[in-house]
Amino acid sequence: MRIWRYWFFRFSLFFLTLAPAFGAEPEFDPADGPVVHATPAMWTVHGPKGTAYLLGSFHALPRNVDWKTPQIRHAVQSANVFVFEISHEPDFRRRWTQLYGENILLPLSNSLPSYFDAQMRSEWRAAVEHTRINADTLVQLRPWGAARAFEFAMSGENVHIYSDEGVDNKIAGMAEARGAPILGLETAEAHLHVMLRDATTANEIGQLRDAMHKAATMKMLPFSKMLAAWETGDVRAIRATSTQDPAERKVMLDDRNQAWVPRIEKMLTQKRTFLITVGAAHLAGPGSVVDLLRADGYTVKGPDSPGAQLSSANTK
User: Which residue has the higher pLDDT, 99 or 125?
Assistant: First the structure.
């Protein structure tokens, strides 16, 4: 799918496909291009009783990326609890589908363009042209939903990526095949709040107006650089290619990281091994989960540890 469609539908179709265990995976199809051998960044932290591997994910990928390094295989095999940003359990999927559907769509009698004034109609056309977003997919969305779509569309390169190839879905499939516990770091309601960003019926038109103006006038984000940073486990590049907008960064990354860390620290008091798979931007640089754990006194070993190569993802 086109990259903007991945980012938008990541939140509504996150759970459609779960992958089998490592040994049951098919060979790569030469039609998808040469195999790219990725080395995603991964960290290890030990607590009073437990151990956690922190794996930086890319939520959708091309079909020719092999990211299953020996170190990641070791983490998967060692883990007895699997943790994600949001749960992959069936009950959660049903709750999220219901909650998302209730909040994202306009009544059938309305359409998004009916809310536009002359300036918004002009910027709508310019934003659609600049991002090459499919406008037909937006007309039944509430303004806040269309605003998010335009924001995500700013990574607009025509790269074919697939949610079923995403690291989260692959690892969730492995956990499900083993019958291992699967946990989420946030509830469906909290995840919806991330998407809404305090949108209300009173302010969501303003959110859409701002998003369309940016989509019409600002430079597109370098998706190929984002993917390359993840593939090489380059922590500095992951940080540099993640969102730099302060308000967006606060809601999408910083606030969530701060909410997750106490949960992770509580896990480390249990005599278990956790594999925690979250978007790579949550683990890179100041304010990241890794940074916050270190600030709380934990030794977190990984590619940005003293003496380690920033491009290395090979930690156990």
Answer: 125
**What is the separation of C-alpha 261 from the centre of its chain, rounded to a whole number of angstroms?**
17
Single out the residue of 186, 258, 177, 240 nearest to residue 11, CA to CA. 186
Write out pLDDT tens, residues 258-293: 999 999 999 999 999 999 999 999 999 999 999 999
SS3 per residue for 93-107: HHHHHHHHHHHHECC
- Report the domain count for the chain: 1
Cα–Cα distance measured from residue 200 to residue 212, given in angstroms and rounded to the nearest whole number: 18
312 lies in a domain? Answer: no
Q: Are 130 and 215 in contact (CB under 8 A)?
A: yes
Q: Are strands 273-279 and 65-66 parallel, antiparallel or unpaired?
A: unpaired
Of 67, 5, 57, 59, give the one whose Cα is nearest residue 36.
Answer: 67
pTM above threshold 0.85: no
Instruction: Give domain status of residue 28, yes or no.
Output: no
The answer to whether 168 and 55 are in contact (CB under 8 A) is no
Specify if 296 maps to a domain.
yes
Q: Identify whether the C-beta of residue 290 lies closer than 8 Å to the C-beta of residue 54.
A: yes
